[in-house]
Amino acid sequence: MSNYTNSPCAACKFLRRKCTSDCVFAPYFPPEEPTKFANVHRIFGASNVSKILQEVAPHQREDAVNSLAYEAEARLKDPVYGCVGAISVLQRQVLRLQRELEETNADLMRYASCLGGETTSAYGGRRG
């Protein structure tokens, strides 16, 4: 049963079963987060999640549930690639921004070399 309330955890409520004191889902699916379990259940199934939680060391279960929840949400948005699709989009964006930064730095270097030994004031005017 959840540590914070007497109501059943989100998993037991979703599955319409009694939430017992040894419920494997209760610590990770609190009653105030019903969508979290619903998404995980829709993608992985309650039985598979239960097996995963039982196989994972107790100190790693919260991380495992957070990973499952993240992947489930990503799979609902992108059924084919899931979170890998999001990672791929972000990697392409980083590469594009790195190229843009390199081009901007090259432009700055060309601009600085055009000025030669001259410096500019804070207002853009040349000082000799």
TrEMBL record:
InterPro entries for this protein: LOB (IPR004883)
Residue stretches making up the LOB domain: 7-108
Highest taxon in the source lineage: Eukaryota
Similarity comment: Belongs to the LOB domain-containing protein family.
Protein's name in the database: LOB domain-containing protein
Species this protein is from: Capsella rubella
